[in-house]
UniProtKB/TrEMBL annotation:
Name of the protein in its database record: Uracil-DNA glycosylase
InterPro entries: UDG_fam1 (IPR002043), Ura-DNA_Glyclase_AS (IPR018085), Uracil-DNA_glycosylase-like (IPR005122), Uracil-DNA_glycosylase-like_sf (IPR036895)
Catalytic residues (UniProt): D65 (proton acceptor)
Catalytically driven reaction(s): Hydrolyzes single-stranded DNA or mismatched double-stranded DNA and polynucleotides, releasing free uracil
Organism, as annotated: Hwangdonia seohaensis
Length: 221
């Protein structure tokens, strides 16, 4: 695994890279990519950090696992490459944006356009074996991404964290709510959304309201 991560993150993450757990994780990931089909492509594992630089982070969205189908994952949580059919959770995200902000449903499911505006699209686990959801969980990625959440909390102010679903809500304990805002709702997956835990959360307009109050540029969702 090559540590192709933007220089803005390196001063904050170098101590993690030097820890024993991360070296063990790196060996595991390297072996998996050598011997199995894994996603996202190896050069996109740290895409969330490369497209959203540390100084630009205004919003953090936390996912769980990369998509495990061919051509889907691009290193940004909930995002798929252009031309790829939108997975159910992404469909529900776009439907909520359409309802909340009146923005037409987009054809392109690549969320790079959000990342480039300061939205860190962070999966808790950054890699996965093809067609095996959760296959790279509990190998060290969660320790790393928890450290990322905490360092953002410690070193920045006024960030809006979107915690969707039970898994993401567990990350609230890593965030200093005196400095940052947390918005919680159900997960956009059909199981949660169809039970009434997702639609109508208005998180996208609420984020922009919070950013505006802090004098920050809003997100063009």
């Amino acid at each position: 695994m090559t540590l192709e991560i933007h220089k803005s993150w390196q001063p904050y993450l170098q101590t993690e890279f030097d820890k024993a757990y991360f070296k063990k994780l790196a060996d595991f990931v390297k072996s998996e990519y050598k011997n199995e089909t894994c996603f996202p492509p190896e050069n996109q594992i740290f895409n969330a950090f490369n497209q959203c630089h540390f100084n630009d982070v205004k919003v953090v969205i936390i996912g769980q696992d990369p998509y495990h189908g061919v051509g889907q994952a691009n290193g940004l949580c909930f995002s798929v490459n252009e031309g790829i059919a939108h997975p159910p959770s992404l469909i529900n995200i776009f439907k909520e944006i359409e309802s909340d902000l009146g923005i037409p449903y987009p054809k392109n499911g690549n969320l790079s356009r959000w990342a480039n505006q300061g939205v860190l699209l962070l999966n808790a686990t950054l890699t996965v074996r093809a067609h095996l959801a959760g296959s790279h969980q509990k190998k060290g990625w969660e320790l790393f991404t928890n450290a990322v959440i905490k360092l953002i909390s410690d070193n920045k102010e006024g960030v809006v964290f979107l915690l969707w679903g039970g898994f993401a809500k567990q990350k609230a304990k890593l965030i200093n709510t005196k400095k940052h805002c947390i918005l919680e709702s159900g997960h956009p997956s059909p199981l949660s959304a169809n039970r009434g835990y997702w639609f109508g959360n208005k998180h996208f307009s609420k984020v922009n309201l919070l950013l505006n109050q802090k004098g920050n540029k809003t997100i063009a969702w």
